[in-house]
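ok trying again, last paste got cut off:
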Amino acid sequence: MDEKIVLEIKENLLKQRAQIVEALADQIDDMKNLVKPVESGDEADVASDAIDRTLLDSLGAQDAQRIRLIDGALERIRLGKYGICTSCGIDIPEARLQAIPYATMCVDCASAEERKHR
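nice, full thing came through this time. structure:
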């Protein structure tokens, strides 16, 4: 794969990672505000707070997963293995990596893996 493209993707991955970390920090602040004791709220207020906490937890888990995927891609770049399907070993098309820069598999292998888990 062209070194210039890999560098562009690396910069993009680093920007995405920084944005996610910033968003997670904001979510932690929001979570701290939600966890504060509820003052004589009725049941609807308590239920609403519980839903908000669950939503923030879910978003945090998704962001944490994306950070793991990004870190994996950055490590593959460092090792010189970026853009190679971890399943079949062929080159992952550049268009796929531009769309999903942390993709570990080519479209065929990713589709086969998805079908296995249905």
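cool. Helices lie at 3-35, 43-79, 94-99, 107-116. The two ends are 32 Å apart (CA to CA).
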